[in-house]
Amino acid sequence: DRRPGSGTPDWVPLRDELRGEEPYGAPQIDVPVRLNTNENPYGPSEVAADDVAASVRAAALGLNRYPDREAWGLRTALAAYLSREIAGVDAAGVWAANGSNEVMQQILQAFGGPGRTALSFAPTYSMYPEYARNTHTRWIAGQRRDDFGIDAHAAVALIEAEQPDVVFLTSPNNPTGTALDPEHTRAVLESAPGIVVVDEAYAEFRRAGTPSALELLAEFPRLIVTRTMSKAFALAGGRLGYLAADPAIVDALRIVRLPYHLSSVTQATAEAALRHTDELLAQVDALRVERDRSADRLRAAGFQVAESDANFILFGTFDDRHAVWQALVDRGVLIRETGPLGWLRVSIGTPAEMDAFHTALQEVTTT
Ligand code: PMP
């Protein structure tokens, strides 16, 4: 495993604050049961894959030309998808990039930067501080409550004290699975002086009755809601993240994006996948059922389980979580050692994969 960050020789003129840093990433270990990066265990069908292949072939014939810089066809298709949930979203209010990772980095390039501050509430997605570091944005982490929700009073007090230019809220949150109380989101929006990003990478997995922040877009023009095709659409390998916001916010992001950042192959792939939305999202219901079933099994086995609206579950607690993680790997089951000390996170796989996980966990924790 090469770790360019920690092993950087002195002669490599790396920025001081990057010395000793390690590139982000979960271990990619080749085991039979991979439940560590919140991927969708169900790949696209043959029909969807054929459509992607045909669309990519058509795009290939034009690869001598740069792609549509504005990705207008794709943004129109994404707006149509979001319109299933909320009226009034059009292509001008949608932006797309190579994964929501890139979307969020662009947000900090445009709205963060030297002399500016970004803030979130930990434990949360561990990439946010890295986007901040990469864009020279000051980073502040507030704390979530013991149940991993947000303490609205403390959040508002912190926002008033720090006056952040960008606030990241994550709902459902990674790694805890927690969906935000809409009143808490509103309290943050009412007190934040700048941009508020609600990262909804796992939105499609939320339980019935849990609202999306999309509903607040009309009321709060500095709100950005980010989504991804990596999880619900089973398109992690396609790298397509997107956001909905006021068109003026989208226009501001266009200033910092690299020209032609979305390749014609990526645009063709994502547009083809969106034509199969119903089929791809059909698996989401099965995953939600499997999640709830797994949470029940973990509770029945005596574990603490965080309420989850996502396609993963945080559970614990273990005196030596690394030993448990390693013992599961030894049995061919890869989960994620992340989150607050003592907890582990398992992504929801197929029923057979989850059975393998529960069986291995039982062996590991009862011997
Ligand atoms: N936000 C959250 C909360 C995530 O968990 C992830 C992926 N693990 C992302 C954003 C980034 O996803 P992608 O770049 O694949 O869209």
TrEMBL record:
Residue ranges for the region (Disordered) are 1-28
Q: What is its EC number?
A: 2.6.1.9
Residue intervals of the Aminotransferase class I/classII large domain: 33-359
Q: Which CDD domains match?
A: AAT_like
Which superkingdom, per the lineage? Answer: Bacteria
This protein's pathway reads: Amino-acid biosynthesis; L-histidine biosynthesis; L-histidine from 5-phospho-alpha-D-ribose 1-diphosphate: step 7/9
Catalytic activity, as annotated = L-histidinol phosphate + 2-oxoglutarate = 3-(imidazol-4-yl)-2-oxopropyl phosphate + L-glutamate
Q: What is this protein called?
A: Histidinol-phosphate aminotransferase
Q: Which UniProt keywords apply?
A: Amino-acid biosynthesis, Aminotransferase, Histidine biosynthesis, Pyridoxal phosphate, Transferase
Q: Which residues carry this modification: N6-(pyridoxal phosphate)lysine?
A: 231
> Record keywords: Signal included?
no
Q: Which family does it belong to?
A: Belongs to the class-II pyridoxal-phosphate-dependent aminotransferase family. Histidinol-phosphate aminotransferase subfamily.
Specify whether Cell membrane is a keyword of the entry. Answer: no
Q: Name the cofactor(s) required for activity, per the record.
A: pyridoxal 5'-phosphate
Query: Which regions are flagged for Basic and acidic residues bias?
Result: 13-22
What is the annotated quaternary arrangement, including any partners? Answer: Homodimer.
Q: Which InterPro entries match?
A: Aminotrans_II_pyridoxalP_BS, Aminotransferase_I/II_large, HisP_aminotrans, PyrdxlP-dep_Trfase, PyrdxlP-dep_Trfase_major, PyrdxlP-dep_Trfase_small
Q: Which organism is it from?
A: Aeromicrobium alkaliterrae
